[in-house]
Design brief:
The protein has 205 residues and is of the alpha+beta class. It has three domains: 3-80, no CATH class; 88-161, no CATH class; 162-205, no CATH class. Helices cover 38% and strands 19% of the residues. It has a five-stranded mixed sheet with strand order 2-1-5-4-3, with no helix packed on it.
Length: 205
């Protein structure tokens, strides 16, 4: 998006997501230093409601034009200042485990020396009774950065990784042969039946 099309609300939300980094610009003689102090003191949370811009302008005591100018200049420095480096100070790991039994579990790990990659097998004995199996594979890995933390979310599915099946499922998603409700509510076996991946002679065994 072109700089002239950026909205104060969108810019403010982006800056709030980087609040822990803002003290970098304190004591550097920046014209927007008071705005930085204001944001740091308020400790806004992106997950919570941020007040309308007109309310923020009123709270800072600045005019709208000055508020907007400071906001855009701060945002520009966050994007372009070569001396500014964000620091990720913590990593958290979360596993999402699903099974063909329709029962799953979510658990967190504080440390994970080796992060498994997509398609790799994982033997997990922690929740065998609940999931009905201890053999899984890494279906998907998602990384998110929030409040100075890196969140690594690892999705495990029961069984062994099958490249053909995943290519077929991706194709089905693109062609709208399955919808999102199917993906969340049906087991892999039911999806394979729906897409005729399982031969009829095999189903009748």
């Amino acid at each position: 998006m072109k700089p002239e099309n950026l909205t104060p609300k969108g810019i403010f939300e982006d800056i709030v997501s980087m609040t822990w980094t803002l003290p970098f610009y304190l004591g550097k003689g920046k014209e927007y230093e008071e705005l930085v102090k204001f944001i740091c003191e308020k400790k806004y949370d992106q997950q919570k409601s941020i007040p309308p811009i007109k309310n923020l302008v009123k709270e800072t005591g600045l005019s709208y034009s000055i508020f907007s100018k400071f906001l855009k200049n701060l945002y520009k420095d966050l994007r372009e200042d070569e001396d500014f480096v964000m620091d990720t100070h913590e990593v958290k790991y979360r596993f999402w485990v699903s099974s063909s039994h329709g029962r799953g579990v979510i658990f967190d790990l504080k440390n994970l020396p080796v992060v498994p990659r997509t398609g790799e097998s994982v033997e997990l004995s922690y929740f065998r009774e609940c999931c009905g199996s201890n053999t899984f594979y890494v279906k998907n890995i998602k990384h998110a950065f929030r409040n100075g933390c890196q969140f690594v979310e690892i999705e495990l599915a029961e069984g062994d990784y099958n490249l053909f099946w995943h290519l077929r499922l991706d194709e089905a998603i693109e062609k709208k042969e399955v919808d999102w409700d199917d993906l969340f509510e049906k087991s892999a076996y039911q999806l394979k039946e729906q897409l005729d991946v399982i031969p009829k002679w095999y189903r009748n065994l």
